[in-house]
Each structure stands twice: as C-alpha cells, then as structure tokens.
Design a protein that fits this description.
Shape: elongated
Number of strands: 0
Radius of gyration: 30 Å
Helix content: 55-70%
Number of helices: 4
Largest sheet: none
Structural class: mainly alpha
C-alpha cells in the first residue's frame, strides 16, 4: 500500500510540474494532454473495493444486512398487529387490555 501511495504522489508531482510549465492562459483552458497524467482517485484503490460478491466477508455482511432487515420487518408487523388488537380492545371498553397491547407494540 505504501508503494501505491508513493506512485500516486509521483504522478501528482508530475502533473503539477506539467501544469506549472504551461503558459498562464493555457492553464485555465481545458487541456486534454493533461489527462494522460491523471491518476485514479483514492476511492478506486480503497481497500474496501476488494469486497466483491464472491468474497466471504462480503457474503457475511450481506447475511447480516438480510438478518437485520428481517428483524425490522418482524418488529414493524408485530407493532401493527398489536396496535390493531389494542384498537379492538379499546372499542370493546377493555382499556387495560388495550393499554397492554399498545405497550407490547412499542
């Protein structure tokens, strides 16, 4: 990783040297020759980019996301169900039961 960082720094230095030798009026215009000295952003060489769908760590993260999502869906369904039960109990005049259902839905 250190070698990659040094390579990028050398490329940036070469780019700045190239830009400093240009006349002032050309520095402001689009000069496509400078594109040859462009280096990829740090994001493209980010260590996280190694996590592809075939990677076991990626699969573990994906499984964790699916598990958390399923838990959120279950909690949302339970809350809705308990709210409906509480509404039914409230309409029937069973206020203590309604309160218990509402609390379970939270």
């Amino acid at each position: 990783m250190i070698a990659e960082k040094e390579r990028r720094e050398r490329a940036r230095a070469a780019f700045h040297e190239y830009r400093s030798k240009m006349p002032e009026d050309k520095q402001r215009a689009t000069d496509y020759d400078a594109w040859d000295l462009w280096t990829p952003s740090d994001d493209e060489t980010d260590p996280w980019m190694k996590y592809t769908p075939e990677n076991p760590a990626f699969k573990a993260m994906e499984a964790d996301i699916d598990k958390r999502h399923a838990a959120q869906v279950r909690a949302r369904q339970t809350a809705h169900r308990k709210r409906e039960e509480g509404n039914d109990a409230f309409r029937a005049g069973q206020f203590a039961e309604a309160l218990k259902c509402y609390e379970l839905g939270l």
